[in-house]
Design a protein that fits this description.
Structural class: mainly beta
Helix content: under 10%
Number of helices: 1
Order of helices and strands: EEEHE
Number of domains: 1
Distance between the termini: 7 Å
Number of strands: 4
Length: 44
Amino acid sequence: MLANCGWIVKGKLFICKVNRREILISTVTNREKSGAQSTLIEVN
């Protein structure tokens, strides 16, 4: 499925909204961080 993801700069967390639920991913690389403010990613 596709999830709308964006960065929370203050907490340095990556947030993904999947099925109206928020998933926080704190273990992301700087390369992934260089993505857009709002990005669509594929979630298995």
